[in-house]
Amino acid sequence: MKREKEKIKIIPLGGINEIGKNLTAFEYKEDIIVIDCGLKFPDEDMFGIDIVIPDISYLIKNKDKVKGIFLTHAHEDHIGALPYVLKQLNVPVYGTKLTLGIVETKLKEHGLLSSVELIRINPKDIIKLDSMSVEFIKTNHSIADSVAIAIHTPIGVVIHTGDFKVDYTPIDGEIIDLARFAELGKKGVLMLLADSTNVERPGYTMSESTVGKTFENIFSTAKGRILVATFASNIHRLQQIITAAAKHNRKVAVSGRSMENIVTVALELGYLEFEKETLISVDAINKYPPENVVIITTGSQGEPMSALSRISNNDHKKISIIPGDLVIISASPIPGNEKLISKVINQLFKKGAEVIYESLADVHVSGHACQEELKLMHALVKPKYFMPVHGEYRHLKQHAELAIKMGLPQNNVIIVDNGDIIEVSKDTLRKNGSVTSGNVFVDGLGVGDVGNIVLRDRKHLSQDGILTVVVTIEKESSSVIAGPDLISRGFVYVRESEDLMEQAKEIVKQVLKECEDKGITDWATLKSKIKDGLRVYLYEKTKRKPMILPIIMEI
Amino acid sequence: MKREKEKIKIIPLGGINEIGKNLTAFEYKEDIIVIDCGLKFPDEDMFGIDIVIPDISYLIKNKDKVKGIFLTHAHEDHIGALPYVLKQLNVPVYGTKLTLGIVETKLKEHGLLSSVELIRINPKDIIKLDSMSVEFIKTNHSIADSVAIAIHTPIGVVIHTGDFKVDYTPIDGEIIDLARFAELGKKGVLMLLADSTNVERPGYTMSESTVGKTFENIFSTAKGRILVATFASNIHRLQQIITAAAKHNRKVAVSGRSMENIVTVALELGYLEFEKETLISVDAINKYPPENVVIITTGSQGEPMSALSRISNNDHKKISIIPGDLVIISASPIPGNEKLISKVINQLFKKGAEVIYESLADVHVSGHACQEELKLMHALVKPKYFMPVHGEYRHLKQHAELAIKMGLPQNNVIIVDNGDIIEVSKDTLRKNGSVTSGNVFVDGLGVGDVGNIVLRDRKHLSQDGILTVVVTIEKESSSVIAGPDLISRGFVYVRESEDLMEQAKEIVKQVLKECEDKGITDWATLKSKIKDGLRVYLYEKTKRKPMILPIIMEI
């Protein structure tokens, strides 16, 4: 086979036209590697769904080719689907120390730890597979130990940035490995896939260390307790909080399950540094005067079951707000969470706390590259082809335009969808068909057993409730033995709507009588007549459309 | 009675600790006046609710005292509850020309126009009631013809700003009447109630005319059609779009019911000025080349049924996107709408349109005063007492702090809740009890017939659906004649869960048998045993909690 005709297939199964659920397959000859394996949190119209994971039918069909899952970092939208995917596809998982530390905790919870091979890598490591090799490149992001991935094949190098920003003063001192990106760029990079999350923002993302300065300012003047809510996984943020606390003679307690887990892992692996006695148990906070206490909690997104939300509602077992508390919400609202966060802020203010949040002070920075950082990446890597990833269509489109403005020919930039097969050769880039892809819903213990019909029903039920009509009919004579009984839930107050329900019952009786008179014993027809009669009547009287569920008991 | 003991009662029935539903009662001796009568759009946990209006039990109880409803401006959160409130409380409604023009359209739709007395007022007008008089003061806001209200009583003047901003270069040339606020302030104002919406934002809100400059820039270079989505009621915005269009030889078509209504009213009343032939029908847009067309539409909040949303989904009868279209979303997302708007933007980009929105260009300004404007208002009015209104608790709290920073003693500032009775005398300010207040839900034709139980049921149904269990039992013998039948909706795919449903049926059969054996004929007990048995089993198997509805047919 001629080299010229050889192709790399890139198949994103998540993370395109959406925020989250990141998973991309790279296929070359007999090897498939998977970059990331993330979940997505449900949209508001996915009623009752806990999480959403990618459909990996394609990988299962090509099981034997899949050589491993390569993780860029330990955020849920990059590792959260692992427990579900690994049950169907047991392949080695590659990641940096902290990434695997957090993955371990997750697999332990799902009883999977002993059955999965976890392979720890370091930035600069290169894993050799049959037909390609996989290189890890240090990046900066809002979680420590993030990497980009370069895939080396005989026909060229493909770079996937993962989530990244450029931080010249990172907390761990390790700047994104710009030199390596430049070196690869100089040698020639066939294709770049890059993070599009912040492409709408001009300029640069501020350094994580600027947040530390804000903490320092706040901590130096605060008189009472300080509570800081942030993302559990942002270990550098935690480090800065703890450093500021220690400097101002404050002990630190940690609240919230995910926060406790991450702190444990980060401590074990050496990602947090402080004097042992700085950390105290939540049970001990009342032993210290308020001015010597900092509490780090989960709940920066206003999640109703989180520690901060419970604290704000006086619903936390061990922590309640005392007037004079200062609460810092060290995060930005993820779109859709604004109202939840606002609710928590209002409650905290009502309880007598001061609350500082992003619109009032610089208590948060993003983990994603803004326009100038993206341009830097493009300028260093100088890829032949470019495919924007990690974003909704608006982000992908604008990232594509940014690449074109920087000199790439329009035909060398491709905007794709999940499931598309993108074929790259030395001198061609094109879509060539697609594979099965989409959302798999996890609801309780069920994975994929809730589909569109169930969701449509839940939506319908949520709007106008349900009216159940039951009648017992004698098979032979079609005559009504018992009922009709009408029972509603989520429709109207029955007590205030007796007339309505009585009249509805009369309508059902009429339908039943007609059917009996006509000798109709086809229950499907009868049910549909009951539905129609009730639907028209109820809509006329209430302008509502409850689900109508006729049940016929035959004796 | 001595003057010193005389009191004004201020009773907010909406607009406190919430955005929307503004309605405040002012009571002095035998007069009650009501300022504004607004609705609120439902929170996401108010399943199936169309709109939320204030509980006005207190006003109905004191019907004879209520002298009128005084409107500050024609936004839905200030006039939207009128059709419902006026049905229970037919009092005169006072408002400026445009405000009443828009109210008329609304009352016409509800068949109420002929039965309500609408009294048109102008800024500077004073309406004399028995014990007080009501003065209107010109303000600026994101709708024309907005006013603040000053209530003159023998014990002092109370000013309610309504929604306002300070615009030194407004489109209609009429700056907020700062002189009158200053004059009243100089004479002495007993109490100020002021808009808190933007209290978290430092600086000044930009003038509406800055948006016109952005339009001018965009229109002067655009090559294809231009679509602008904005709030229908922002007539100055519409004027600026039309002016820019006319200047660049573009015809203007209007799409969306509320937009068409408002344009009609504004034209009739002289609030929009342009050459007649500028306006064309939506049916005529294809007669003109793309570079000569502007379409103004509703849907700037991504509302699923709005014109822009339909256009973005190829679901609009008369308008579809053609590549090269430029869409301007001239609005900010109202918290909670971010995802809906993002969906529309993504769809528009996919269809080949360019999309400009707030984060990319200055295509919107707020209608509310930022910190410096609020300080100006406080400095001019110099009230003895202050009560922040129009905002969530966080906003009220920060507005209170702003007033204190400006010199008001802490005890002269009061943060209240809806339903509180605030008593103001010449030298006292205090809460003294409360009246009934709260949310009345409008769902279809029902006003107030959906309460917390119905909402709780809808929420439950939306999460895990419903499992109905029906059984026909012979009364005498307690023996089962037909069933049990299990029917689920929104719970699981029945086809994929046959075992689960079979097993569930077995559990019901066991319960029935036990009850028959024990001779239990108390159906309530039987139902509760069925519920318990199924709940435990289903949760164990699925970690879900569907609503369980056992129905027993007795023959």
UniProtKB/TrEMBL annotation, chains A, B:
<keyword id="KW-0269">Exonuclease</keyword>
<feature type="domain" description="Metallo-beta-lactamase">
    <location>
        <begin position="20"/>
        <end position="215"/>
    </location>
</feature>
<feature type="binding site">
    <location>
        <position position="78"/>
    </location>
    <ligand>
        <name>Zn(2+) 2</name>
    </ligand>
</feature>
<dbReference type="InterPro" id="IPR001587">
    <property type="entry name" value="RNase_J_CS"/>
</dbReference>
<feature type="binding site">
    <location>
        <position position="390"/>
    </location>
    <ligand>
        <name>Zn(2+) 2</name>
    </ligand>
</feature>
<feature type="binding site">
    <location>
        <position position="443"/>
    </location>
    <ligand>
        <name>Ca(2+)</name>
    </ligand>
</feature>
<dbReference type="InterPro" id="IPR004613">
    <property type="entry name" value="RNase_J"/>
</dbReference>
<feature type="binding site">
    <location>
        <position position="163"/>
    </location>
    <ligand>
        <name>Zn(2+) 1</name>
    </ligand>
</feature>
<dbReference type="Pfam" id="PF07521">
    <property type="entry name" value="RMMBL"/>
</dbReference>
<comment type="function">
    <text>An RNase that has 5'-3' exonuclease and possibly endonuclease activity. Involved in maturation of rRNA and in some organisms also mRNA maturation and/or decay.</text>
</comment>
<keyword id="KW-0106">Calcium</keyword>
<dbReference type="GO" id="GO:0008270">
    <property type="term" value="F:zinc ion binding"/>
</dbReference>
<protein>
    <recommendedName>
        <fullName>Ribonuclease J</fullName>
        <ecNumber>3.1.-.-</ecNumber>
    </recommendedName>
</protein>
<dbReference type="GO" id="GO:0004521">
    <property type="term" value="F:RNA endonuclease activity"/>
</dbReference>
<keyword id="KW-0255">Endonuclease</keyword>
<feature type="active site" description="Proton donor">
    <location>
        <position position="195"/>
    </location>
</feature>
<dbReference type="GO" id="GO:0006364">
    <property type="term" value="P:rRNA processing"/>
</dbReference>
<dbReference type="Pfam" id="PF22505">
    <property type="entry name" value="RNase_J_b_CASP"/>
</dbReference>
<feature type="binding site">
    <location>
        <position position="141"/>
    </location>
    <ligand>
        <name>Zn(2+) 1</name>
    </ligand>
</feature>
<dbReference type="InterPro" id="IPR036866">
    <property type="entry name" value="RibonucZ/Hydroxyglut_hydro"/>
</dbReference>
<comment type="similarity">
    <text>Belongs to the metallo-beta-lactamase superfamily. RNA-metabolizing metallo-beta-lactamase-like family. Bacterial RNase J subfamily.</text>
</comment>
<feature type="binding site">
    <location>
        <position position="77"/>
    </location>
    <ligand>
        <name>Zn(2+) 1</name>
    </ligand>
</feature>
<keyword id="KW-0479">Metal-binding</keyword>
<feature type="binding site">
    <location>
        <position position="48"/>
    </location>
    <ligand>
        <name>Ca(2+)</name>
    </ligand>
</feature>
<keyword id="KW-0378">Hydrolase</keyword>
<dbReference type="GO" id="GO:0004534">
    <property type="term" value="F:5'-3' RNA exonuclease activity"/>
</dbReference>
<dbReference type="InterPro" id="IPR055132">
    <property type="entry name" value="RNase_J_b_CASP"/>
</dbReference>
<feature type="binding site">
    <location>
        <position position="75"/>
    </location>
    <ligand>
        <name>Zn(2+) 1</name>
    </ligand>
</feature>
<keyword id="KW-0698">rRNA processing</keyword>
<dbReference type="Pfam" id="PF00753">
    <property type="entry name" value="Lactamase_B"/>
</dbReference>
<dbReference type="InterPro" id="IPR042173">
    <property type="entry name" value="RNase_J_2"/>
</dbReference>
<comment type="subunit">
    <text>Homodimer, may be a subunit of the RNA degradosome.</text>
</comment>
<feature type="active site" description="Proton acceptor">
    <location>
        <position position="368"/>
    </location>
</feature>
<keyword id="KW-0694">RNA-binding</keyword>
<feature type="binding site">
    <location>
        <position position="50"/>
    </location>
    <ligand>
        <name>Ca(2+)</name>
    </ligand>
</feature>
<keyword id="KW-0540">Nuclease</keyword>
<feature type="binding site">
    <location>
        <begin position="364"/>
        <end position="368"/>
    </location>
    <ligand>
        <name>substrate</name>
    </ligand>
</feature>
<dbReference type="Pfam" id="PF17770">
    <property type="entry name" value="RNase_J_C"/>
</dbReference>
<feature type="binding site">
    <location>
        <begin position="232"/>
        <end position="234"/>
    </location>
    <ligand>
        <name>substrate</name>
    </ligand>
</feature>
<keyword id="KW-0963">Cytoplasm</keyword>
<dbReference type="GO" id="GO:0005737">
    <property type="term" value="C:cytoplasm"/>
</dbReference>
<feature type="binding site">
    <location>
        <position position="73"/>
    </location>
    <ligand>
        <name>Zn(2+) 1</name>
    </ligand>
</feature>
